[in-house]
Amino acid sequence: NIIFDDLSFQIYQQQMYLDKLEYENLKRDLRSAVKNGEFKLYYQPKIKINDNQNKIGGVEALIRWEHPTLGLVSPQRFIKIAEESSLIREIGDWVIEEAFKQLSNWQNKYDSDLSISVNLSPLELYDKNKSARIKNLSQKYKIRRELIEFEITENALLDNRSDTIKTLNELKNLDFSIALDDFGSGYSSLSYLSRLPIDTLKIDKSFIAKLADSRNIILIDSIINLSHKMNLKVIAEGVENSEQLEIMKKLNCDEIQGYYFYKALPVDQFEKILEENYNY
Ligand code: C2E
Ligand code: CA
Ligand code: CA
Ligand code: CA
Predict the structure, then answer these.
(1) 259 lines ligand 1 (CB under 6 A)
(2) CB atoms < 10 A from the CB of 184, how many?
(3) Could you read off the pLDDT tens digit of each residue along the chain, which spans 280 residues?
């Protein structure tokens, strides 16, 4: 028994060592990833379901890292590392510029109202110059700001920092939209809905995965009614099958995002869908 425990401890230590090594390696490689052009944005379509036409209203930009030796690394892994090392500022600015460039491209190419949502991490909101830089970029690329939505998560708001809310208000005053992402996944507080300048509420995919539970349906029904009374748009993420879609339609959800329609796509594949299926 003692020998066994000793061995499992060694294995545990080895694993810790490997995790730490991997962490350090990723962190090192992240530093050069922006410069080396290893990031790409993928675009996941959002489908408008409230008018029964099922059109694409916009997309969420989702970052992808093509690591030279490891291949595609999930943002779940590297965004956290970037946040811990403040590299998130550089990466976040790159994401915004890339998304603006893409929107201006689509504005010229399609003459459409296609919108783009961009994820902002909490650290980016603490940055006092963030909204000024975003404003400059929006002028550089001549984009219609009302077509850009920034998605923030509840964690960004937890510590109640005034600089977070200040940045959000500045963005809002510039005509950008704000969405509260992953709603219901963490320490959701209904008071956010009245205290923050938000336009959209994004119901977390964990809720959508548990629609078989009737209590969950009641909860979502109430959230949607409440949101609509407050003039917020409601979008559900993680819709994977037609049952979930039908329930969300009945509950008057405005937009749907999920594998049932599309996963996040590279820009050329997304444009092909626009042109072939939606007469763009
Ligand atoms: P998120 O903002 O909640 O984005 C939604 C995630 O759910 C995406 O994962 C998307 O691909 C995935 N997803 C979409 N539809 C479905 C579905 O039907 N079922 C399931 N199970 N998943 C679905 P992804 O792209 O791996 O991104 C993970 C997280 O990484 C994002 O969660 C976001 O928090 C973060 N992230 C991604 N791109 C960026 C970025 O540019 N900046 C920042 N700060 N964070 C980002
Ligand atoms: Ca998001
Ligand atoms: Ca989300
Ligand atoms: Ca999430």
Answers:
(1) yes
(2) 18
(3) 566 677 788 888 888 877 888 889 999 999 999 889 999 999 999 999 988 889 999 999 999 999 999 899 999 999 999 998 889 999 999 999 999 999 999 999 998 899 999 999 988 998 999 999 999 999 999 999 999 999 998 777 767 778 889 999 999 999 999 999 999 887 777 888 888 899 999 999 999 999 989 999 999 999 999 999 999 999 999 999 999 999 999 999 999 999 999 999 999 999 999 999 998 9
Which burial class, exposed, middle or buried, applies to 72 when counting CB atoms under 10 A from its CB (0-12, 13-18, 19+)? exposed
Query: How many Å apart are CA 142 and CA 100, to the nearest integer?
Result: 9
Q: Which ligand is nearest to the CA of 81?
A: 1
- Measured from the Cα of 82, ligand 1's closest atom is 44
